[in-house]
Amino acid sequence: MIKAVGLRKSFGDFTAVDGIDVEVAPGESFGFLGPNGAGKTSTMKIIGCTSPASGGTIRILGMDPASQASKIKARLGVVPQEDALDADLTVFENLLVYGRYFGLPRATVRARAEELLEFAQLVDKRDEIVEKLSGGMKRRLTIARGLINTPQIVLLDEPTTGLDPQARHILWDRLFRLKREGVTLVLTTHYMDEAEQLCDRLVVMDKGRIVAEGSPRALIAEHASREVLELRFDVADHAERAADVEGIGARVEVLADRLLLYVENGDVALEQVTARGVHPMSSLVRRASLEDVFLRLTGRSLIE
Amino acid sequence: MVTTTQEVSDRRRSRIPFPVAFALPLALVERNARAARHFWLTIVSGFFEPVFYLFAMGVGIGALVGDVMVDGVAIGYGVFVAPALMATSAMNGAVYDSTQNVFWKLRFAKTYDTALSTPMRPTDVAIGEISWALLRGLIYSTAFLAVAAIGGFVHSWWALLAIPACTLIGLAFASVGMAATTYMSSWTHLEYVQLAILPMFLFSATFYPLSTYPAALQWVVQATPLYHGVDLVRGLMLGDLHAGLLVHVAYLAIFGTVGIWATAKRIERLLLT
Ligand SMILES: Nc1ncnc2c1ncn2[C@@H]1O[C@H](COP(=O)(O)OP(=O)(O)OP(=O)(O)O)[C@@H](O)[C@H]1O
Ligand SMILES: [Mg+2]
């Protein structure tokens, strides 16, 4: 579906995407996980044919964006990072007008728009001006809009950033439905739970490069342990206490406000900690996540 | 060589001429028409301004100045000034649509970014947006001409051709205006547009004949696009046809074509980076 080799994007002297290789298979859900400025949006725009690559090659549905942009775009659904809905139009008109941009017949677009209102759970907002929608509704409308041409690939740039947990879950549910229908999803996120929920496979991006690739489960297995024991102490600098717990588990990571111990079994590890006479102010046992993978790979947290 | 069905259908598609090539720009016209339904009051108000001018100038001032001599023929002042007001209002409408409105859509509403994520190309956006300005202008010109005829300011059936002439004026100003707008980065830049428009409105042989000026100044006036628009519309409305009108048509058409081309190039540079 998508195949990129040595893909690069630079703005003047600055390199936003620095030679990445990506391949996405039909029906797959593929994610770009990375912090702010990693180059996710830049990559998505190249795939969406609204930004020419500065180097490397890319083929989308077997076509080259440099020469066949319109033909590729006709088969893509784009959900940009910022909604960019048409504020002068109603919910329904947003769908209609966008469909007409594809040159689709009016009757086809109309029928499709009705279906999508249903899909986006916006039937009762049909004739509202979009300004009056909540953030979650706008996001759903943007996704619905991206589906108006029944695309083969849907590009979602941070589909749930800035939404409350309930709105996120509704969105995830809609995206699952798409995935079940066999649509290829390509998404970016800086939430690891989102990546774990939605992606079959993902790449971790940092500073324009890919630092790891695999399924969420495989990445966690490879770069983290099964469980993580978090310890908080009543000290200014947690580095002071790192030596006290050294050797318990595979690795100790020092953060500003806590220590992370990568262990097979968190409860057992906590017993070992107390057995050493170390008494943290509080402790938490959790499963390892992609956040831990990212920390391991870059030495930095994903969300600041 | 084996030709795939895909290739065959592609070739067939690229051979379908006019209507399909215009389907995408028309989608943007449709978008603007839908948006206009939510702002119908602004749309209606666009009609009144030139009509008010017509009666203030034609009837009010006309009573004071009496007749104007054009090429040795005396005509009423209202008859003289009506074509200029029609041409000017075509210019004003086109400039307003292609600067204020386009600036907003380009920089803030992201209307064109959205369009460009679909098969729409920068040329489709340029043509679509300008066509909308022309369509709107067409309605105003028609209405103005009807009012002017009822008011007794029109003396020739050739005046009907003033409507397409005004569309041509709109094309020239909308496309150059839109191209200029792509260079603007703040609202204050839009003030410069008024700075260019106002002297043209006042001095393009709008309110008095070109012969009023000294010879040197006549050349300056004749270089401005509005002069060509005013003289073209005036020739048609007075039924005074001559070959010079074709020069006006050519001048305005070239202006328009260059403007569309420049707009498409600029949109590509700004939005497809
Ligand atoms: N048009 C541009 N001109 C100059 N620099 C740009 C441009 N677009 C992006 N950049 C830079 O490229 C880098 C990568 O940006 P990009 O938007 O791809 O990051 P991102 O991973 O999507 O980040 P975020 O999570 O904040 O959306 C950033 O440092 C950004 O400042
Ligand atoms: Mg981004």
Structural summary, described in words:
- The complex is a heterodimer of chains A (304) and B (273).
- Chain A has helices at 40-47, 65-73, 91-101, 106-119, 135-146, 165-180, 192-198, 216-223, 239-245, 266-275, 290-298; strands at residues 2-11, 14-24, 29-33, 55-60, 76-79, 153-157, 184-189, 201-206, 209-214, 227-232, 251-254, 259-263, 282-287.
- Chain A is of the alpha/beta class.
- Chain A folds into 2 domains: 2-220, P-loop containing nucleotide triphosphate hydrolases (Rossmann fold); 225-288, Alpha-Beta Plaits.
- In chain A, strand 11 and strand 12 form a beta hairpin.
- In chain A, helix 3 (91-101) packs across helix 4, helix 3 runs parallel beside helix 5 and helix 8 crosses helix 11.
- The two termini of chain A are 34 Å apart.
- In chain A, 46% of the residues are buried.
- With 273 residues, chain B is mainly alpha-helical.
- Chain B has one domain (17-271).
- Chain B has 12 helices and 2 strands; from the N terminus they run ααααββαααααααα.
- In chain B, a hairpin with a 2-residue loop joins strand 1 and strand 2.
- The chains are: A alpha/beta (304), B mainly alpha (273).
CATH topology (fold) name of the largest domain in chain A: Rossmann fold
Number of helices of chain B: 12
Terminal CA distance of chain A reads 34 Å
Bound molecules: adenosine-5'-triphosphate, magnesium ion
> What's the number of structural domains of chain B?
1
Could you report the average pLDDT of chain A, rounded to the nearest whole number?
A: 91
Number of helices of chain A: 11
How are the strands of the largest sheet of chain B arranged? Answer: 1-2
Report the top-level CATH class of the largest domain in chain A: Alpha Beta
Q: Provide the gyration radius of chain A in Å.
A: 22 Å
| Spatial sequence of strands, sheet with the most strands of chain A | 5-6-7-3-8-9
CATH architecture classification name of the largest domain in chain A: 3-Layer(aba) Sandwich
Relative helix content of chain A? 25-40%
H and E order of chain A? EEEHEHEHHHEHEHEEHEHEEHEH
Straight-line distance between termini of chain B: 37 Å
